[in-house]
Amino acid sequence: MKLLPMLAIAITVAALTGCGDEPKPGEAAKPVLKPEMIVIPVKGQFLAACHSEDLLKEALLHSVREEKTKFAAMFSNMDCVQIPYDGRYKVLSVGHNVIEITTATASDSRGMWTVTEAMQPAQ
């Protein structure tokens, strides 16, 4: 459970930094993620995903409000999970600053939701 505070901060920062659509001067444009694209985690980001977009937003809200018990409970209840950094994932759906993903080799039509900033196109 030691990773949960760092995970909460990383998720919150990733979600909040993605709020601006325009890159800052001197900053590279963020890659556009699209359905069916294979993605990998951004190095240095903690990667968590939730079973629905609403659960992800709830986890982010608990994190921003510093409601550590509620945030940790979402992981204990398996509403959200930390997923492997070395995985490859397929984008199923794209929302505003969030994406639905599944493992790259799966044929599932339902995945888990994570923040867009945590992923980048696979090379």
Number of helices: 3
**Measured distance between first and last alpha carbons:** 32 Å
- Assign the structural class, choosing from mainly alpha, mainly beta, alpha/beta, alpha+beta, or little secondary structure: alpha+beta
Percent of residues in β-strands: 15-25%
Major sheet: 5 strands, antiparallel
Q: Kindly report the spatial arrangement of strands forming the biggest sheet.
A: 6-5-4-1-7
Number of DSSP-assigned strands: 7
Q: Topology as H/E string?
A: HEEHHEEEEE
**Model regions low in confidence, pLDDT < 50 over at least 5 residues:** 12-19
Name the overall outline.
globular
Q: Could you tell me the radius of gyration in angstroms?
A: 14 Å
Averaged pLDDT = 83
Please bin the fraction of helical residues.
25-40%
Features of this protein?
123 residues, alpha+beta, two-stranded antiparallel ribbon, 3 helices, 7 strands
Describe, in plain words, how this protein is organized in 3D:
It is a single chain. The chain has 3 helices and 7 strands, in the order αββααβββββ. The strands form 2 sheets. The chain has a 5-stranded antiparallel sheet. A two-stranded antiparallel sheet has the order 2-3. The protein has helices at 3-17, 53-64, 68-76, and strands spanning 38-41, 48-50, 80-82, 89-94, 98-103, 112-115, 119-121.
